[in-house]
Amino acid sequence: MNNERVWVDEAWRHSLEKTVRNSARIGSGFPHASQGGVYQLAEPSWWTAGFWPGMLWLLYGESGKEELKLLAEECEARLDDVLDAYVKLDHDMGFIWTMTSVANYTLTGNETSRIRAMKAANYLAARFNLKGQYIRAWNPWSEGERNEGQAIIDCCMNMPLLFWASRISGDPRYAHIAEAHMDTVLKYFIRADGSVYHIVNFDPHTGEMLEGLGGQGYAPESAWSRGAAWAIYGLTLAYHHTGKNDYYQAAKRVANFFLSRLPEDSVPAWDFRAPDELRSLRDTSAGSCAASGLLLLAAKSEGGDADVYRAGGERILKSLYENYGAWDDPAEEGLLLHGTSNYPQGTNIDVPLIYGDFFFVEGLARLKGCGPFYWE
Questions:
Q1: How many degrees, rounded to 5, is the angle at CA 235 between CA 273 and CA 257?
Q2: Residues with catalytic annotation?
Q3: 8, 15 contact by CB (below 8 A)
Q4: What is the DSSP track for 167-200?
Q5: Domain 3-368 has CATH 1.50.10.10
Q6: Distance CA 320, CA 311 (A)
Q7: Most buried residue, 206, 265, 302, 344, by most Cβ within 10 Å?
């Protein structure tokens, strides 16, 4: 057994053991960020609702532990009220139902799960703005707010739900919308150097780009690292689903930017262009998401490119395991320490984040070759 396999298998074992322990308290809840060592549970409508059940499905797929499957199914059932009530649904339907209903249908053939995922895909497709060729991100956060012109880089990761819906239904319209949105990402979100905007604001009536916004990054023209991670992974997935070379080339450009800005331990700052005094603040969730995306990009590449992206993804995951894990701390439920959720709003800074944990486990699964991976 080589050294690579030793640490990967060890990290997987630690992740499985800790998740099983955590499940005794979390159950079919929806954890988001850990505060004081305890994962705070969010409402089922919150955008992170799919990551805990998604991680349960990943770990169940390799371990066969029935209790993880049952909890994942309970989470999925609890989301029916959100899906049927409609009013709190936004673009993050892809995050939520890809990792719950698509996962369940893929593994078990559950017909109810297929219908749930198709409902979510229809609602997501309905958010498409024809003039601007983008998926609207959010509903108003407060009375009177106008954000119907806003699209965000995170939505790259919601497009696999639409590609899945086209494949399952045989109806190409879902994929047409996903591809149109990703073409808009290429045109307006990806800068020449490979950095990305978090938010782009469009005129919702004409489709004209109005401005790029900083969002969860330091400033409009900065380089929020998790945004780059969403782009690496989302563009690679778009290439996977379409074979369109423009997506592949853009994924490489963002990946090269991301890898070139990593510090010595390969775990990114929360924003690569934040002032020096703020750049020491890391975001392990950006690292784990990028790592999983880099491993998929490596699988889609050949020769030296494949070697670079695979090595980069492995370095990030190994550093996360060795330098940022909470494996030996029974007072901490999070798998990875030092995530940064939203620095500008001052929320969930330097804490474990459930999506960081999910992508870490998914990255390990890619190294182990034990999918399936529901985005694909």
A1: 30
A2: 92, 154
A3: no
A4: HHH--THHHHHHHHHHHHIIIIIB-TTS-B-SEE
A5: yes
A6: 14
A7: 265
What residues does 35 pair with on adjacent strands?
Answer: 38
Q: How far apart are the C-alpha atoms of 235 and 248, rounded to whole Å?
A: 7
pLDDT digits (tens, 9 = 90+) for 41-85: 999 999 999 999 999 999 999 999 999 999 999 999 999 999 999
CA distances from 69 to 241, 333, 376 (A): 27, 20, 20
What is the spatial distance between Cα 249 and Cα 239, in angstroms, rounded to a whole number?
9
Task: State how far the Cα of 101 lies from the Cα of 92, in Å rounded to an integer.
Answer: 14
Q: Could you tell me the two tokens for 37?
A: 């060592």
Instruction: Look up residue 118 and give its amino acid.
Output: M
Give the C-alpha separation, 1 to 110, whole Å.
Answer: 38
283-317 residue pLDDT tens = 999 999 999 999 999 999 999 999 999 999 999 99
Could you give the strand order of the β-sheet that contains 209-213, starting from the edge strand earlier in sequence? Answer: 150-152, 199-202, 209-213
Distance separating alpha carbons of residues 193 and 302, to the nearest angstrom:
22
Q: How many CB atoms lie within 10 A of CB 243?
A: 10
- Per the structure block, which two tokens stand in for 160? 């696999």
**How far, in Å, CA of 91 to CA of 236, rounded?**
19
Torsion region of 37: left, alpha or beta (phi above 0 gives left; psi -120 to 50 gives alpha): left
* Separation of alpha carbons 190 and 181, rounded Å: 13
Rounded to whole angstroms, the Cα distance separating 312 from 328 reads: 26
